[in-house]
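call fold(seq) -> tokens
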Amino acid sequence: MFTIAPVTRVRVSADPQAEVVAELQQGTELEVLGKKEAFLQVSAWHPGRGRVAGWVHRSFVGGQKPESVHAVDAAIVDSVVPRCHACSNANWALVPFKHDYAGGHPNIPTGFLDSIDVKARVCLGCGLVELCLDKEGRKRLTEWLKQ
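ret:
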């Protein structure tokens, strides 16, 4: 097994909020020691710290070394895909968002009867939910701010 993300954080426990033991570069070979929910317990060689062990989210691990399947430059990924603040995953689902208590949905008012709908994105790695704008919403916001 290998790390497939540009940087994979090894944590002290199988929790996206747990302390980071080490950060492994893309293509680092891993020895899998165990599994717990969405995490793998691994051992790996870290250039500055020697052998490290801990937990990584399984979405950052693959069976092939990334160089053999078109490795992606970390700067490109970070500029295009936002990373989850909890687990550093770059896999998101964009979903509609609705307030149960008000029966409506959040929006940014841009005029008397005009607004930009706010969406929610859900991290597929840990389930974190964040409010955001989709591509059309960002375009409309930029145009409105220029007025």
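The chain has two domains: 2-80, 92-146.
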